[in-house]
Amino acid sequence: MNYSTKWIKVSRDELLKDLAEKIKPSRYQHVLRVEQTAIELAKANQVDIEKASIAALMHDYAKDYPLDEMKALAQQYWNYPLLNEAGGNIWHGFAAATIAKQDYGITDKDILDAIAVHTIGWHAMTPLMSVIFIADYIEPGRNFPGVETVRQITQQSLDQAVGYKLTHNIQYLLQQQQPLFLPTIEFYNQWIKNNMV
Amino acid sequence: MNYSTKWIKVSRDELLKDLAEKIKPSRYQHVLRVEQTAIELAKANQVDIEKASIAALMHDYAKDYPLDEMKALAQQYWNYPLLNEAGGNIWHGFAAATIAKQDYGITDKDILDAIAVHTIGWHAMTPLMSVIFIADYIEPGRNFPGVETVRQITQQSLDQAVGYKLTHNIQYLLQQQQPLFLPTIEFYNQWIKNNMV
Fold it and tell me: Is the ipTM of this complex over 0.90?
């Protein structure tokens, strides 16, 4: 894909070259698969495919950064007290959004937020945010129990897939006796409210 | 048990008589079993058994009240915006605490809070609060899958039983696609933090 200069100031090839230096090879392959899935989901859900490609390629950009650097970058994107107590699994999305803004001149809030909240979801998900949230979950390399079910749900409704991922993420954290991030719970509550029969 | 006049201005018999008029017979039997279990747990955990009896007998006092009345009473106890959006399952504890205060002259914060939060838990559980929280969960009439496990855990550690109930309550709400009450999540996070190895 050839990027216009509308959303990002580098070409896709330049972005890929940078990315290969920032993340480990297995993650690089994951990111390419997320991009592929994100483009498919974008087409099926009337989302701009260039925006989907950019957000997908950027989403894990900071995941192999040292934790202190990742955290500092994340806090530049979102000055929220509870973020301080979260961990790398939450910080890396916000950190990548800061990098997208500062180093790649991305200003589109939809792209930036889709990168930022790709692990936690948000109380007001745009279609692009949902595309990245789900592409990361069902890209062809994923093989957790139930992934085929989510792939089928996604074909019928992206929003239902969002609810599925969200609920299962919270269940997983409970099983692992891990803390829950309050904004994720607020988003879950919002989702339930929107989908109540 | 004969109550002193230290915590409540009526006798146990008078409280039971009132209670029988307020809640349906099957619930009345449940409340008596919660009291019995609460007294056992109080003895095992160095908690005042009179306080345990009072809190146990009062905990479901408002559960058969009309929802609008229950909600208004709950909000008198806790002026918290999110309480407004909760439901009867959360309101009835806070409503009972208001009744305990207004109609029975109970002023002891520990008793009142143990009644108030018996379904949701709290970020700073006192031993009495834990006793009521767990007695309600494992009284002899309870027969959900896993109740025997919780009874065994309780014998070893009341606090571990609190964590078990809390985690399973959240899991149940997720399975039922019900909203999660944020203070319960904050309490869960606090419990996890306190119990991290």
Answer: no
